[in-house]
Structures are given as structure tokens and as C-alpha cells.
């Protein structure tokens, strides 16, 4: 029947997508294997025994990814770290290991400071014999670097996290590790805060929800709260389904049967608040990094509403920003579209797609919600941003699917919440026709959607060949440039590549009116000028030919002399390169 066919097709496409992701990682792993070898002659491809492993695994097409645990013994283990962005990156890299006695060395053999944290399998129970180690490293643009992990009893560079666990009526029956101190408390009546050198975020003690944010240098605290909400569906006529959103009125607060368990972790490189509700696990993390990652809050929501009937789960952020019902959403991550809440329209008519980001603002501040997955968003009241996390609907909405939305899984939604201030000389103008994210906002979005990839060496016993970092660029790419693609073109013989390479670049438009902050790397803009002749390390640019976006038609003749290009903001350009 139709339901069985739908289930089979869902399973089929889930499997295809999973295998596509696995194959893409295999390509990255094999390329990284060759690039990090000091002696390229030692490269040998073995499909049955890859040189590098993946950073995470999945049991099946429905399960969430689980991080790989690196097992340490007397033999050192190496990990290759890949930065998929065209900008240098100062970031915190976290790995799972089987011992708390560990030393992490960089490529030069210098020991790095390590934050040691527990790995949790539930609100109150640690995973036995698994620990999270976090180090702060600087990664080259589009580059690879290596870390060495050694089992060591020297705790000189070990910085242990401290954990406070507020049970709120729940029992504590979990394991404790001596390596990670845990303070178990029955309840929290006072608010608590997480802070770094840039900002302080405060949370409600009883509920664990976000309450306010204060940036260093600001005169007053910004009220910024979060709340989970539930939408029902209409009781008459058409009801909500796969294509229709027909709520039974305004959203109601999500009220779980029991108060949440709140776990507060504080450490040298990151601090976080983990809140465990009946259907939601929310983690709000603040990185202690001098740069992009430390200027926003990282939020992840693990959602499971499989026991709900005709319910839609939403997350609402409320602030004191006087947005007056005006908000902004992106169009496929390329440009920003202004939106206006209209009370005369039904509630559902005020929701819009949010592929990458949405923000609200007034003349003083801007609040941006960056997302790693496309969701629906709205601003139903001044100062609010609201996003739909998951939907479970039991009936067909007569729009072609033929059934309800009942195949829900445990899903993880990831966000970054960025609060920015307009500079005193550049106040935001009301009813402006065009709006752009700031440079910080663009880079925050890229950090969220292009995570660092860690690849441990598979060989545990044999001494590995000599490894070295790989840095492909010899100059800094301007911060407003994004490298969309760089690939070898197919030759006339389909089995062989051609001598040409396709380069696709995008220059982002950005708002200069927001206060500039330290991004943690050499961020420069060059008015759209980029010298491709000196871009690549150890490679010469023989010829450069501008091409149509599809690479089918040359726009000018190939030139061996002109190697500098110019892009206007919001433009995408394609080039054919010959490198030698």
C-alpha cells in the first residue's frame, strides 16, 4: 500500500544519502593521506585498510552520528585536523579518548594545554572510561595539521573541567570519575552565569534557560531569554500536515512532567549549560576563544517528540530589541530579505524559510540566529525570533503526500546566537530596502556550517611515516571572499583529468555599520581584488580565463599575463586555471 511504499522509499533515500556522505569522507581521507605525508613516494592506497579513520560513525541510516573514541596505549596516536574554510581558523578541537592521563603535542612536538571533560550518556551518568579532551589550535586556511596524543602521567598541561549537577528531584545513580570533579546539588534557586573575555551569559537556576547576555564594554545587560513552545492543530476543517501549518492559535509553553536536570560545566576553553527535559536536551556552550567562536553562543537541541500527537515544537528567543515586527531572513544563504509581521494575516502566514540565518534589529543592536539546518522562522512580536524545531502530525493535509508526518526520529538542531551592536556613527535605518549581515556574522555562519574535521590514524601499533602540515595558500584570502569550488575539470578521455582547474568564487556583501570585533585571525578586505598568481603555495598560474558560471562558455581569451581578478559585492565568478 501507499504507506509501505513511502516507508521503503524513505529507507532507500536515507541509505543513499548516508553512503554519499561516507564516500565524500573517504575522498577527503585519501586526499589528506597523500597531502600530510612528508615523503609522497610512501603513499599507498589500500581500500580495505585506510590510513586515516573518520571522526564519527553511524549505526544505521536513522541514527545520529557518534564520535570515534581514540584508544591510547604505550604507542603515540596521531590525528590529522582539516580546516574546510578559506580563512585561517583559531578554534577548539575536541576528541574522545579512553584515558584521562594524556598529553597532546603539536606538530613541533610542543605540549598543548588540554581541557579534560567527562563524556555523558545521560543527564547524570558518565560514560565509563571515555573522556573528552579539548585543545585550542590555529588551523591554516584549507589546510591540514597534525596532533600527537600520548598516554602520560604528567598533568602539568591538564586543565580539568568542574561540573555542578542540579538534580531538581531526580535521583543520581551514575558513575563518577575521579579525574573529573562533580558537585551534586539537589536544586538551584539562584541564577548562574557562563563568561569569557568577550561576554557573559546568565541562566535561570530552576529551569536552566537563557535569561540575559552582557558584552564586555556595554553599559547594561541585554535581556535575552529562550523558551520552548508547543503548537497544536485546528480541530475543524483542514488540519496541519506535511505541507500545511494550521495551528489552533498561539503557541503554549512546553511543560514537561518533571523539572529538568541542569548540568553546568566550566573549563578553560569552553563552558556549557546542559538542560535535560523529557523530550529535549539543550546544550548552550560558550567558548573561551579570542576570536569568532568566542563571540556567540553555540546552541544544540536534541529533540525526540515521537510520543506526541499533532504537536509542533518551537524555540523562541525574546529580547528587548525594538524590532516592531520587522525581521530578516536569508534566501538560500545568498542574500537577505526583509520581512514584516502582519497581524491581519493568519499566524501561519507570518512564517518564512530560514536556510542559514534570521535576525532582528533596532537602531542600537542586532540579534542573529544562525542555523546549521533549514527551518521555519518568524517574529510574532517585537524583540522575538521563533524557530520550528520538529513537527509530528497524524493526518494527511490533502496536498499529495497521502499520509501524516509520523516517521519522526531523534534529531539534533544546531544554532549560533550572535548579538551585535551598531557603531555610534552608523545607526540602522528603518525601512531600508537592502540589509546585509556583518563580516563577523558571515564568518560565524561558515564556522557553524563547515566544521573542523578530525581524522585519527587507523594504524595503532606500527610506527607511522613522517607527517607534516599542509598549507595550500601562500597569501591571505580576503575575508569577504568565499571559495565555492576548486576542482579539476574532466578531460576528453573520461578516465583522465584535464590540465585545467575550475575555480568558483563568491564575494559576500556585508554591513560595515556594526562594531568590528577581534576575529582571531588576520581579516583583511581588498575592495574585491585578489591576486590568483600568488595564491597557491608551490604552484604557478600559467593561464587564467574567466568563464560562464556553468564553465561552458569562455568570457574572454585566456591570459598568461593578467593574474589579478576583481569581484563586486554579491557576485559569483568562475575561472578556468592552468596550474604548473
UniProtKB/TrEMBL annotation:
GO-annotated molecular function: alpha-mannosidase activity; carbohydrate binding
UniProt domain Glycosyl hydrolase family 38 C-terminal: residue ranges: 194-399
Gene3D superfamilies: Golgi alpha-mannosidase II (2.60.40.1180), Golgi alpha-mannosidase II, domain 4 (2.70.98.30)
Record flagged with keyword Signal: yes
Keyword terms, alphabetized: Signal
Signal peptide region: 1-20
GO cellular component, one term: Golgi membrane
GO terms (BP aspect): mannose metabolic process; N-glycan processing
Protein name: Glycosyl hydrolase family 38 C-terminal domain-containing protein
Organism of origin: Micrurus corallinus
Species classification: Eukaryota, Metazoa, Chordata, Craniata, Vertebrata
